[in-house]
Structure formats: C-alpha cells, structure tokens
Amino acid sequence: DAGVTQSPTHLIKTRGQQVTLRCSPISGHKSVSWYQQVLGQGPQFIFQYYEKEERGRGNFPDRFSARQFPNYSSELNVNALLLGDSALYLCASSVLGDAHSNQPQHFGDGTRLSIL
Amino acid sequence: DQQVKQNSPSLSVQEGRISILNCDYTNSMFDYFLWYKKYPAEGPTFLISISSIKDKNEDGRFTVFLNKSAKHLSLHIVPSQPGDSAVYFCAASVTTSGTYKYIFGTGTRLKVLA
C-alpha cells in the first residue's frame, strides 16, 4: 500500500511569493495534519483536517491556510512568504481524527521549502 | 514553552547494547505518547506508542515506559543495531476543544557503533 505522498519534494521561492503544497493520505485515512519542521527542532503543528473540516490550528499566522478535498487529499497554502518560512513541511494522515482511537499519524517524506 | 523535552541531543551506543532515550513533559493533559524515528531525507516513521493509562508497552526490540508521576517517558532498544542510527522524536498527543495534535520534542540523534 502507498504511504502518505507529498509533492513537490523540493521547492525554491522568493520572499513575497505564494506556495501550494500537496498531500495524499494513506488510502482509508480521513484525517490529515500539517507540520512545519525547521532545522534542529521537532515538527510543529500547523493544521488538522478531518472529513474536510478544519479541526485544529496551531500558532501560525493567517498567511497559512489549508483545505481538504472530498478524496481526503489536502493542500497547504502559504502567502507572502518570508525567509523564516524556509522549512520541511510534513503531512501526516490517520484513520480517525482523534487520539482516542490510538491510531498513530503516519508521515510523508515532506516538502523542503527554501525561501531566497 | 516547550511542553515536550528531549534533553539529550545525541547518544552513542555500542551494537548489541541497550539504548535508552528519554523524554520529559509538562502537560498532565497529554493522553497518548509516541516515538518516531527519522532518517535523513525521510519523514518520521512511527515506532511505538503508549496510552496514558498504561506504564509499559513492548514491541519486539522496542519498549516504552511511562512514569506519569515524574512526567517522564523513555524508549529502550535492546539489542541496538547499526540500522537503528537515526533521530528519535518523542511526541505527545492532546485533544483540546476538538483539536487533536501532536507536540514533538526536539529529537535525540542515536548512533549505534558497530
């Protein structure tokens, strides 16, 4: 079975531009979460979507937005890019939308975003 | 405010010996804890988890221990193998106001020496 797939794998943008990152969850998984990982840190939670609805948002500015489609794939959009947005963006999927199911989140390999 | 802390950035262990990775947390509302392993250029891979109502969970060479009174979590790998060399992240799950998210530590780089 295919795991979580993310595209593109690498991306270079300049300050002020906009970017869209894409994620396809594992088949049968209805929840998608987005994380940002900067060098030397653990992943930081950005968004969670479950059944196409936003279930949670981390401490990120409104320049960050996301959506989930009927096939459960997801996009993360970042507007007005800043140098500090340079990071690895990880997508994770899980069967359900809460921890009580004890089903762990499974991560993709991420999109490496570099801002010049 | 770092709610999940991994105070050892790196650890070296001889092949065949035990590796012990530690994690401390501050939020007593965490209800589920996980360990992930990450190789370079790959996403984190789920290893093992434990519910807050248990104190031990074992899966093959991997055992996770939870001490709720001390707010401390540890991962034991026995015996350690060179292929275990990676960065290990401790994560805690919390559900608040319908939001379900993982909070990660900063990671410990494990090097298993052949």
Describe the model.
The complex is a heterodimer of chains A (116) and B (114). With 116 residues, chain A is mainly β. Chain A has no helices and 11 strands. Chain B has no helices and 11 strands. In chain B, strands 2, 4, 5, 9, 10 and 11 form a 6-stranded mixed sheet that branches. In chain B, a hairpin with a 2-residue loop joins β6 (56-59) and β7 (62-67). Chain B is globular and about 45 Å long. In chain B, 36% of the residues are buried. Chain A binds chain B through residues 4, 31, 33, 35, 40-45, 48, 55-58, 90, 92, 97-100, 102, 104-110, and chain B through 4, 31-32, 34, 36, 41-46, 49, 51, 89, 91, 93-95, 97-107.
Strand fraction of chain B equals over 45%
For this structure, the quaternary state is heterodimer
Annotation field: number of helices of chain B: 0
The total of beta strands of chain B comes to 11
The overall average pLDDT of chain B, rounded, is 93
Number of helices of chain A: 0
Number-wise, the strands of chain A total 11
> What is the helical fraction of chain A, as a range of percent?
under 10%
How would you characterize the largest beta sheet of chain B? 6 strands, mixed
User: Ranges of chain A with pLDDT <50 over ≥5 residues?
Assistant: none
Low-confidence stretches of chain B: none
Radius of gyration of chain A: 13 Å
Distance between the termini of chain B: 38 Å
Helix content of chain B: under 10%
